[in-house]
Each structure stands twice: as structure tokens, then as C-alpha cells.
Amino acid sequence: MSRLPLIGVTACTKQIGLHSWHIAGDKYLRAVVVGAGGLPLVIPALADLIDQPSLLASLDGLLFTGSPSNVEPHHYSGPASDAGTAHDPARDQTTLPLIRKAVEAGIPVLGICRGFQEMNVAFGGSLHQKVQEVPGMMDHREPGDEPVEVQYAPRHTVRVQAGGVLDGLGMPDEIKVNSIHGQGVQRLAPGLRVEALAPDGLVEAFSVEGAPSFALGVQWHPEWQVRSNPNYLAIFQAFGEACRKRVRQR
Ligand SMILES: N[C@@H](CCC(=O)NCCCC(=O)O)C(=O)O
User: Fold this and answer.
1) 204 alpha carbon to ligand 1 midpoint, in Å?
2) For the chain, how big is the Rg over CA atoms in Å?
3) How many angstroms separate the alpha carbon of residue 247 from the centre of ligand 1?
4) Which of 5, 47, 65, 105 could form a disulfide with 93 if both were Cys (CB 3.0 to 4.6 A apart)?
5) Which phi and psi (to 5°) does residue 14 adopt?
6) Among residues 142, 195, 204, 223, which one is catalytic?
7) What tens digit of pLDDT does each residue of 181-195 get?
8) What is the pLDDT, as a whole number, of residue 2?
9) Burial class of residue 221 (count of CB atoms within 10 Å of its CB; 0-12, 13-18, 19+)
10) Residue of 12, 26, 28, 67 with the most ligand 1 atoms within 8 Å of its CB, for mutation
11) Which CATH superfamily includes the segment(s) 6-249?
12) pTM for this one?
């Protein structure tokens, strides 16, 4: 019997007291287990202290997680962030190079929220820093001061584009998704194919054209209560299947 796929889950850095820690959210780790059927391995944000080719050779999949922090705008030639904006330069230095290398190496990749934004930046795209301030765009942030179940409840529809990865998973033309982000795709990177659009036209999902394996990014959070939403589960199951295929091909 073949082993479970080993799925890297990217971490954020966090200062707790005097020390810096590498943390990954519980819901991402659980979704890798119960949605993708994989074995999660937290990937610390140690940038080039980690030998990325060795890491990639060991992994069967990579999940780029969401985070309250924003990608530093110099990575996409954007204007400096407002003072006080949460950043995580160690995470940027780890994930941005890893994304391109993973996709090129045919390692299945799923990017969620910040992870989706990282994918766009890694392939040469740019981000709106405050979507809610862009004329004509909706406010995609979660309602503040509400219980987490309310914050991660389905909030708006997205239109699934015909002929793409999500369509291939049997998703209806329109699905409802949660929305917990202030930033969003401004310029879509070359080589990314739109998979879903919000009512205001914001790109909510893309896939990497011509990728040798599963390579999908979504702006929403399919890891949230993954088993209770068939559309969220379908994404994790397809990701897990691609990771199992990589195990079989070794
Ligand atoms: N900071 C970025 C990305 C938003 C994001 O990833 N939110 C998730 C927060 C916590 C979590 O569920 O992991 C933005 O604001 O656009």
C-alpha cells in the first residue's frame, strides 16, 4: 500500500514574548488531513536557510495558506504600505521563490487567500492594497467583531468560468464563498487563467496555464469547515488526488 502524500503547509512568523515562532493555522492542517487525505508538514519561513530543491524533492504537495499579513509591495513594484500594515518578510522570502519552483517541478500547489495573492505576485502580477477603496469594488473584508462562524460564512457569489479546473470539478456556474481579505488581484500575472470572478470583477480564483500538475489559487477559504461545503471539499479532494498521483509516480 502506498504511503500518504506529504503536503507542505506554509507558516507565518510570529513574535511571542522574546522569541520568534513559525505557526500554521489549525484549519489548514486539518483540511490537509480530512479534505486532501494527506500528511501535513509545516514549512517554516526560514527563507534560504532551507534548501528548497531538497524540500521540494521530499514533498508531494504544497498548500500556501492565508494570513492576516500582507505581501510586501516591493515584490510587485507597488507603493509602500500604510504605516502599521502587517507584513511578514521572512514568509515572503520563503514562499515567493518556492511557488514558481514547485509549479515548475510538477508539485501540486493550492494557494488560499494570502497564498493565492503570493501566487499572483510570484508569477509577476500585482495587488490592490485596499480593494474596498477602489472605485466600483466591493468590500471583501469579513465583518469585524463577529464570531468566527459569522466571519467565515458564505458572503458573496463568484462566477465559475467555463472550461477551467473548477468547472472540471463539477462546480455550478455560480457558487457562494466566504470573504476575508482586504487585498486582491490588481494585475493578473501572465500565464494565470481566471477560474472565478466576484460580482465586482475581482479575480477570485486562477489556475496556472500549462502547469504539469494541479496548480490552483483561490481568494476564499475552502479549508473552513471543509467537509461541510461540497464545493470546498471538491477543491481539497482534487488537490489530494494530484498529491497521491505524485506519490504513485515516484
Ligand atoms: N492579508 C491579506 C490576505 C488575507 C488572508 O489571507 N486572510 C486570512 C486570515 C486568517 C486565516 O484565515 O488564515 C489580505 O488582507 O488580503
Assistant:
1) 13
2) 17
3) 30
4) 47
5) -145, 135
6) 223
7) 999 999 999 999 999
8) 85
9) buried
10) 67
11) Class I glutamine amidotransferase (GATase) domain (3.40.50.880)
12) 0.98
